[in-house]
Design a protein that fits this description.
Layout: H1 2-24, H2 29-53, H3 69-95, H4 98-105, H5 108-120, H6 126-144, H7 157-180, H8 192-225, H9 237-257, H10 263-270, H11 273-283, H12 290-310
Helix pairs in contact: 1-9, 1-10, 1-11, 2-8, 2-9, 3-7, 3-8, 4-11, 5-7, 5-10, 6-12
Length: 312
């Protein structure tokens, strides 16, 4: 069951990436990111209030567990990690093609795999190892396609931004396993809905501060240079970012809470979202060099097949 949930989360993440790319086109990154955290918070705020003040959600998958500072300090740390990853990722996606950003982002499972092996002692069988090797190869070949579009991976600052986002995202994935594992298994045992609900609230608060500070700095800089600051325009894709991300994370957290779920495999499958984002890049953003990327992308699908076979 947890593997099927991971694939659902992957599809939603692909749609999330496409909406993110559309909303960032010619738009202010900080404002878009703030609105993303705002709408995500509004989605989960009713669950927090209903869980705290009524019994309507008791014994349902939408119930938000309680807890004091001893638990919330762990959620606050997750918020800092995720928001840092998002900040790097949003700026990178604004300047890189979706069909390039997706494969680079897909290196996260490799980083998560190494962490899961070292920290949690997880073991992969032969089928899963074949899937991992094929995935690594496919990601590498897809990344090479960027050279045909004039993107020098060694000197492009946005590539480094995306790599930073990937590293922080992998760290967040490992931290999720620690957060939701029971104390008997060496974790904290935080309620999954509490994690997803409250980390959005904390991110919104942090992004509100960043928005005010950054825009004051931009106004001062623009007035000195006599140049207009980057503007913001509304796009309904901004709302869809929050909807798709919230749904993808909800399914992801639920998958991790299923007994026997392996963070290394769940994270790898989640990165198959690159298939959806690739299709979105081809159909809606009309990106280039699709033929050379498509054959490499087939390896991603094959790697996911081997991962699925390894869990049977």
């Amino acid at each position: 069951m947890w593997l099927a949930l991971a694939f659902v989360s992957a599809a939603l993440l692909g749609l999330y990436d496409a909406c993110k790319k559309k909303s960032l086109k010619g738009n202010d990154v900080v404002a878009v990111l703030f609105l993303n955290t705002l709408f995500s918070s509004l989605i989960f705020l009713p669950f927090i209030l209903l869980s705290a003040n009524t019994g309507v959600l008791d014994h349902t998958i939408f119930h938000v567990g309680g807890g004091g500072w001893e638990l919330h300090k762990y959620i606050l740390l997750k918020s800092c990690i995720v928001l840092s990853s998002w900040t790097f990722g949003y700026f990178a996606l604004k300047h890189l093609p979706l069909t390039i950003a997706g494969p680079i982002n897909a290196t996260r499972p490799v980083m998560t795999l190494v962490g899961a092996l070292l920290i949690f002692g997880e073991e992969l069988n032969v089928w899963q190892w074949i899937g991992v090797v094929l995935a690594i190869l496919s990601f590498y070949l897809l990344s090479r396609s960027g050279k045909k579009e004039g993107i020098d991976f060694k000197h492009d600052v946005w590539v480094y931004f995306l790599l930073a986002a990937a590293v922080l995202g992998a760290l967040s994935g490992l931290y999720d396993k620690y957060l939701m594992a029971s104390p008997a298994d060496g974790g904290v045992g935080v309620d999954r809905m509490a994690v997803q609900s409250w980390y959005n609230i904390y991110q919104m608060a942090m992004m509100g501060v960043v928005l005010v500070v950054s825009h004051r700095g931009l106004r001062r800089k623009s007035s000195r240079a006599h140049q207009p600051q980057d503007g913001f325009h509304w796009d309904w894709a901004i709302v869809l970012i929050s909807l798709f991300l919230s749904a993808a994370d909800f399914v992801y957290f639920y998958a991790l809470s299923v007994p026997g779920a392996m963070i290394s495999v769940v994270s790898m499958v989640r990165r198959s979202s690159v298939v959806v984002s690739f299709l979105m890049g081809a159909l809606f953003f009309h990106e280039k060099n699709l033929r050379s990327k498509a054959s490499d992308l087939a390896l991603v699908l094959l790697s996911m097949l081997f991962l699925w076979m390894g869990t049977r």
